[in-house]
Design a protein that fits this description.
- The chain contains eleven helices and 18 strands.
- The protein folds into two domains: about 290 residues, ATPase, nucleotide binding domain (Nucleotidyltransferase, domain 5), CATH 3.30.420; about 80 residues, Dna Ligase, domain 1.
- The protein is of the alpha+beta class.
- Helix 1 packs across helix 3 and helix 6 crosses helix 7.
Length: about 450
């Protein structure tokens, strides 16, 4: 049976954000949130202090656990993995058909996917996702529904998401150490795949859209065209770079630089009065220091323009930016910066909006809290789980465990007896999936 409540655990370079969500009349309802700081424990998305990272995860989980009902029941969380060590690249495999005049069968597609799975595993020790993006039979156009077509050859094209094995193992250890008695780890997703499920519409994915998640240590850029993920990259570029520039440019401490960015920052300086000043407390009782808000915005704007140019370059690698009718959608903590969407639109000449997670809560305080682009990934981790389970249930098949995508082991929690949340693959190896029109695997730790 489907779990009635799932926890989404977004582990970033500045915070762990956790949300507990369930389906209520087909809509995602968030019933609890948790948050803790990871500043100094992760660098550019990579764990540098495993003990403190685990403690931060435990703290966020504890906040969830303190308010959910049925505390003697086992719950599961879906978590994300990101960082500059993540690599997304295409992979193709083809084979000649024995009888070109016979219709392509379901078994042929299954066998092709199994061959692709084996070939990919031989090249990469840590595969998170293998995402079918299309099949070509003979000289026919690419399709996601090749069964029934005829031709002399069949080719499968995939997008493969891999991670550094060592960093993946370190991440697993952090998650295992953070588990509580009744909250266990489950599926593991590449962040953009989860985030897209709650901020991008099906129409945007079809018409072409770029999802840009601006975190404190990294920025993830993913491009969807014709409902499929066609490009993704993780940059060691985040809001911390802006903070560092503010620190140097205005000659203030790192703490004051971050506070200035959050409280008074803007991505556009022209609208700010040149006479607007903020007083920063001096060190050890010294006199306050005046800071120009306009100068603050100038520093932020230059860095934001740099990121917008990078995003435009990444989009241009896979499609003409002018054809991206779904535009750019910004999420993450960096998307909270005032005027950031307007700056991106001016810099790229592409329509840009800030993505707010598609979820609600019956508690007014939580409902207000989650109207925030920094919650897009944690809420997306919950949404994508229910999307995939519903998809599998609709086809009459529910797989309780699945391949780990790394070392081939299965993880059932410290007790060894906890039931696992359902995996998400069917006999077609998840050819069509609610994530992006072709997700086949979800990593599991």
């Amino acid at each position: 049976m489907r779990n009635d409540l799932i926890i989404g655990l977004d582990i970033g370079s500045s915070h762990v954000r956790a949300v507990a969500g369930k389906l209520n009349e087909g809509k995602l309802e968030i019933i609890a949130t948790g948050k803790s700081s990871t500043i100094g424990y992760l660098l550019n998305g990579d764990i540098v202090n495993i003990n403190k990272t685990s403690s931060a995860i435990s703290e966020a989980i504890s906040q969830i656990e303190s308010v959910i009902t049925g505390k003697n029941k086992d719950y599961f969380f879906s978590s994300n993995l990101s960082g500059s060590h993540i690599n997304v690249q295409p992979f193709s495999i083809s084979k000649l058909r024995k009888n070109p005049n016979d219709a392509v069968s379901e078994k042929e597609i299954f066998d092709l996917n199994e061959e692709a799975k084996k070939a990919i595993a031989e090249k990469h020790p840590c595969v998170m996702h293998r995402l079918p993006i299309g099949f070509t039979v003979g000289n026919l156009p690419e399709t996601m529904e090749p069964v029934g077509q005829i031709g002399s050859k069949i080719q499968g094209d995939y997008m493969v998401v891999t991670a550094s094995f060592d960093k993946f193992e370190l991440f697993k250890k952090s998650l295992r150490a953070a588990e509580s008695e009744h909250i266990k780890g489950g599926n593991l997703y590449f962040s953009p795949l989860a985030t897209s499920s709650t901020v991008l519409s099906a129409e945007e994915k079809k018409e072409g859209v770029a999802l840009v998640d601006i975190g404190s240590g990294t920025t993830e850029i993913s491009v969807y065209v014709n409902k499929r993920l066609t490009h993704a990259t993780v940059l060691s570029w985040g809001g911390d770079r802006i903070t560092e520039d503010i620190k140097i440019g205005l000659e203030v401490s790192a703490e004051h630089a971050e506070a200035l960015k959050v409280r008074f920052g803007s991505a556009l300086h022209k609208e700010i009065d040149i006479h607007e000043i903020v007083m920063i407390p001096g060190i050890a009782g010294r006199k306050p220091i005046p800071v120009s808000v306009k100068n603050l915005a100038i520093i932020i704007e230059e860095r934001a323009k740099e990121l917008a140019a990078i995003v435009l370059t990444e989009i241009s690698k896979v499609t003409n930016p002018e054809t991206l009718r779904g535009g750019i959608v910004l999420v993450g903590g960096g998307a909270q910066l005032p005027d950031i969407s307007e700056l991106f639109q001016r810099s790229t000449d592409i329509d840009t909006r800030v993505g707010i997670p598609n979820a609600h809560s019956n508690q007014s305080s939580i409902a207000e809290e989650i109207k925030d682009p920094s919650y897009a990934t944690s809420i997306g981790l919950v949404q994508v789980y229910f999307d995939q389970v519903a998809d599998v249930e609709a086809e009459g098949e529910l797989v309780e465990t699945m391949d780990s995508g790394s070392d081939g082991t299965q993880y059932a929690g410290p007790t060894g007896g906890a039931s696992k949340p359902p995996g998400v693959k069917n006999i077609f190896n998840r050819i069509v999936d609610t994530l992006m029109g072709g997700s086949e695997e979800v990593g599991e730790y």
